[in-house]
Automatic annotation (TrEMBL):
<dbReference type="GO" id="GO:0016407">
    <property type="term" value="F:acetyltransferase activity"/>
</dbReference>
<dbReference type="InterPro" id="IPR038765">
    <property type="entry name" value="Papain-like_cys_pep_sf"/>
</dbReference>
<comment type="similarity">
    <text>Belongs to the arylamine N-acetyltransferase family.</text>
</comment>
<protein>
    <submittedName>
        <fullName>Arylamine N-acetyltransferase</fullName>
    </submittedName>
</protein>
<dbReference type="Pfam" id="PF00797">
    <property type="entry name" value="Acetyltransf_2"/>
</dbReference>
<dbReference type="InterPro" id="IPR001447">
    <property type="entry name" value="Arylamine_N-AcTrfase"/>
</dbReference>
Length: 316
């Protein structure tokens, strides 16, 4: 496995993740997002593409539960999206960054670190997350023209944030962007209180594909990884965030919250297709049946662990 470049290596400025324009992939990607022709690289376009991706391309790790292996190669990430799938941060932000670069935006990769619910403190920029910055688009709210683009946290941003410290409302969520306490020169996104993950920190230097290889391998294959233990999906739109963890569907919206348990294979696959735009049309019935058996078994294990934890807390 290639070693990451030292942080002060001048080769980082080359943005080695960039790939030559593939017009067929670009146009197929745009078509999935609702564009019939390449749009101009404006701020309005950036916002519209970000919103479309969060609504139409799911954050999902169903591919792990299916026993598939993936890379973090940007072109592969684009191909996953074009094929009707989603992915987690390396794929969603990697693909979108590639598309934006092909459209003429000034795109920069950043190394991030999501603080999951298992950690009491921020983890720093530990490479468990890929973040995108887009430069050169000044506005009254963003005089320096630098925007945080992140469709890879699943239940967080619906549209880009200006890289300006402050509180931002993206219904139904309240988000805060501020200088990081743990990453020198970096930034911290504090998530809404509703979310399982408290937030994410990211570094100011240029990232490369190699920065993420070790964490991608760990997150997609380790038995200790939450992505391996539970098949999760997220979708974000203008007034809600919807999360499916195993068979527990959680909808958080401006009109209220709703949580329910999915009770059958038919309901599960209908939810994937209708709610998360993940029809799995490339997966045969035998593999789908095996997927549901695994998801059901993992869900039962999760419920059992929750009951045991509750009993232990009551006994104390």
């Amino acid at each position: 496995m290639p070693e990451p470049l030292p942080l002060d290596d001048p080769r980082r400025a080359d943005r080695s993740w960039r790939r030559p324009v593939d017009a067929d992939l670009r146009d197929a990607y745009l078509l999935r997002l609702g564009w019939s022709a390449p749009p101009k690289p404006t701020l309005d376009t950036l916002v519209a593409l970000h919103k479309a991706q969060t609504a139409l391309v799911p954050y999902e790790v169903v591919w792990i539960a299916l026993g598939e292996r993936r890379t973090v190669e940007p072109l592969d990430s684009v191909r996953y999206v074009v094929a009707g799938r989603g992915g987690y941060c390396y794929h969603l932000n990697g693909a979108l960054g590639c598309l934006l670069d092909w459209l003429g935006f000034d795109v920069h990769w950043r190394v991030g670190g999501v603080q999951g619910p298992q950690w009491a403190e921020p983890v720093g920029a530990n490479s468990n997350h890929l973040v995108i910055e887009v430069h050169g688009l000044p506005s009254p709210d963003c005089p320096d023209g630098v925007w945080v683009v992140d469709t890879g946290m699943g239940d967080a941003l619906h549209e880009p944030l200006p890289l300006v410290a402050g509180k931002y409302r993206q219904p139904p969520l309240e988000l805060t962007l501020r200088p990081s306490d743990v990453v020198e020169g970096g930034w911290r996104l504090d998530h809404d209180d509703w979310a399982r993950c408290p937030g994410m920190d990211f570094a100011p230097y240029e990232a490369t594909v190699e920065d993420f290889l070790v964490e991608h391998e760990k997150q997609s294959t380790s038995p200790d990884s939450g992505f391996v233990r539970i098949a999760a999906l997220c979708r974000r739109d203008g007034d809600s965030a919807t999360v499916l963890r195993g068979l527990l569907l959680d909808h958080h919206g401006t009109a209220g919250d709703d949580q329910r348990e999915i009770g059958s294979a038919g309901e599960y696959f209908a939810t994937l297709a209708d709610v998360f735009h993940l029809p799995l049309s490339d997966v045969d019935e035998e593999r789908k049946a095996a997927l549901y058996r695994k998801v059901r078994a993992d869900h039962e294990d999760f419920l059992r662990s929750q009951r045991e934890q509750a009993q232990q807390e009551q006994a104390q």
